[in-house]
């Protein structure tokens, strides 16, 4: 049942026949459609001799050599102590991210191991930023990354004052920090500021490998903005520069082609060409990446599992599911009350996946088992949600191999666009907590493949989100569910990410 490893090609693919005259179709004439592999951001940008020196008119008074000056003053002993401390802190973060955060704050506030403008201080700020990202606080991650960026920028300014040129290594570090800052910004919805940073990096005329990274990041940001045409344009420009086939990039390409082709303004000639390109991508994903259907393209795929978009609670090979559904119905009042308390205190986070329409209502969640929450070490569940945690323990006692659970709310007007889940190794149950209606008729629904079903307060939907699916809330009120994610009944193993995601 393991997934087939993705194949790679060796020869550059010729441009697809989707390319057209942009003068005739200004919004859609960029389509090229080459299939290629993904570039690793940091590996690419940290490659030696990647950048040619560029001139700068930024001045400065102090000077630093090619390596930061602190390396001449910090002792080997202190450097070793700092390295050990940061490694220990990274391990702490896995189980106690708030403790790791507090330790790093103390380190930056008072420790002689991290003097101002030192590489040690920059590393500590980078790790603090990673910790904030782990805690889903991307605003503070941005602030920490900005401190790191400022240190590197100071090194570059001083280097320019000394030599008249920007050091290659420092240029690499600046671009890395710009990518990090841009990522933090788009995750908090600051799309224009994020694009401003990527635009500045692209103006430095980086080589192809780095340019691909930046173009793909811009594609993601434009997608989050809802500008699918420009997102597709940026992605195809990046893909045209690569050689190897990559399943993830092919799926993203297919997804954007589908979204753009849904635009009624797309000329019929372009629609035909995009349809042909979609067909080619689907064939490649099935023949080269091991998928078995164009309708089921999750990020992690196990071949041979029972594949149904909707499952029947009363007729399922997993004997724990009917008992679990009955328990959820029974616990409906308590879960509704707990969600209301979380909502009053602003505990739900805006979902950062760019699959919801930015012009509509928000999608908010509270993941009771999220590592960024204050977890009880004995249960692995948030201390904020004692009811959810109690239900989770009961579900596991029934034999349901639960991976995660939490609350999910979509506001009026929200649309979660067609997308695939993370793995076909997991299944989901939704308990309707708060489900509004319009004059007694359903107005919030979940479509999985070709069938839509409405939630019902106090009842359960049982489905496989690795199939293409979407959510629409056309109601005047917010729709709220309690979501339980558990291991597919055909998979052997414990309730863990390793079981569900496994090898790709």
Entry summary:
Helices cover 44% and strands 13% of the residues.
Protein model, in words:
The strands form 4 sheets. This protein has a 6-stranded antiparallel β-sheet. The chain has 16 helices and 14 strands. The chain is globular and about 75 Å long. It is of the alpha+beta class and 504 residues long. The longest helix is centred in the N-terminal third of the chain and has 26 residues, at 138-163. Helix content is 44%, strand content 13%.
SSE topology sketch:
Blueprint: H1 41-45, H2 70-73, H3 76-95, H4 97-110, H5 119-134, H6 138-163, H7 168-187, H8 191-202, H9 208-225, H10 228-239, H11 247-261, H12 268-288, H13 320-330, H14 332-344, E1 349-350, E2 363-367, E3 375-376, E4 381-382, H15 386-397, E5 402-410, E6 415-419, E7 426-434, E8 437-438, E9 441-442, E10 444-448, E11 451-454, E12 460-463, E13 469-473, E14 479-487, H16 497-501
Antiparallel strand pairs: 1-2, 2-5, 3-4, 5-14, 6-13, 7-12, 7-14, 8-9, 10-11, 10-13
Helix pairs in contact: 3-4, 3-5, 4-5, 5-6, 6-7, 7-8, 8-9, 9-10, 10-11, 11-12
């Amino acid at each position: 049942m393991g997934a087939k490893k993705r194949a790679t090609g060796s020869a550059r693919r010729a441009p697809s026949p989707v390319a057209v005259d942009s003068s005739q179709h200004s919004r859609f004439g960029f389509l090229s459609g080459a299939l290629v592999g993904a570039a690793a951001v940091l590996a690419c940008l940290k490659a030696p001799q990647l950048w040619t020196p560029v001139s700068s008119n930024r001045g400065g008074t102090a000077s630093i050599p090619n390596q930061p000056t602190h390396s001449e003053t910090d002792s080997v002993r202190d450097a070793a102590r700092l390295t050990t401390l940061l490694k220990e802190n990274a391990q702490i973060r896995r189980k106690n991210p708030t403790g790791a955060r507090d330790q790093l704050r103390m380190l930056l506030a008072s420790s002689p191991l991290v003097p101002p403008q030192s590489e040690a201080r920059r590393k500590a700020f980078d790790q603090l930023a990673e910790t904030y990202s782990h805690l889903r606080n991307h605003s503070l991650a941005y602030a920490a990354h900005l401190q790191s960026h400022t240190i590197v920028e100071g090194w570059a300014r001083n280097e320019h004052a000394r030599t008249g040129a920007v050091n290659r290594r420092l240029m690499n570090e600046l671009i890395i920090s710009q990518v990090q800052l841009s990522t933090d910004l788009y995750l908090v919805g600051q799309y224009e500021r994020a694009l401003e940073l990527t635009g500045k990096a692209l103006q430095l005329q980086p080589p192809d490998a780095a340019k691909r990274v930046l173009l793909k990041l811009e594609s993601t940001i434009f997608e989050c903005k809802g500008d699918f045409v420009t997102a597709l344009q940026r992605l195809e420009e990046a893909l045209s520069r690569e050689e190897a086939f990559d399943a993830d990039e092919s799926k993203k390409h297919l997804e954007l082609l589908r979204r753009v082709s849904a635009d009624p303004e797309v000329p019929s000639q372009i629609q035909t060409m995009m349809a042909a390109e979609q067909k080619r991508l689907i064939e490649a994903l099935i023949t080269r990446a091991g998928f078995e259907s164009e309708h089921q393209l999750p990020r992690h795929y196990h071949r041979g599992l029972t594949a149904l978009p909707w499952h029947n609670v009363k007729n399922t090979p997993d004997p724990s599911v009917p008992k679990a559904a009955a328990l959820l119905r029974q616990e409906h009042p308590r879960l509704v009350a707990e969600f209301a308390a979380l909502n009053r205190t602003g505990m739900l986070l805006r979902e950062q996946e760019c699959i919801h329409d930015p012009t509509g209502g928000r999608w908010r969640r509270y993941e009771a088992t999220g590592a960024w929450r204050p977890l009880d070490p004995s249960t692995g569940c948030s201390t904020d949600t004692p009811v959810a945690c109690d239900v989770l323990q009961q579900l596991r006692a029934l034999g349901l191999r639960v991976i995660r659970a939490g609350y999910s709310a979509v506001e009026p007007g929200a649309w979660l666009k067609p997308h695939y889940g993370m793995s076909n190794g997991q299944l989901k149950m939704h308990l309707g907590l708060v489900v509004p209606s319009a004059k007694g008729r359903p107005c919030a629904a979940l479509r999985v493949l070709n069938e839509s079903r409405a939630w019902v307060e106090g009842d359960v939907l049982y489905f496989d989100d690795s199939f293409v699916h979407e959510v629409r809330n056309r109601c005047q009120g917010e729709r709220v569910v309690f979501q339980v994610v558990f291991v597919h009944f055909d998979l052997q193993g414990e309730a863990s990410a390793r079981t569900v995601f496994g090898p790709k």
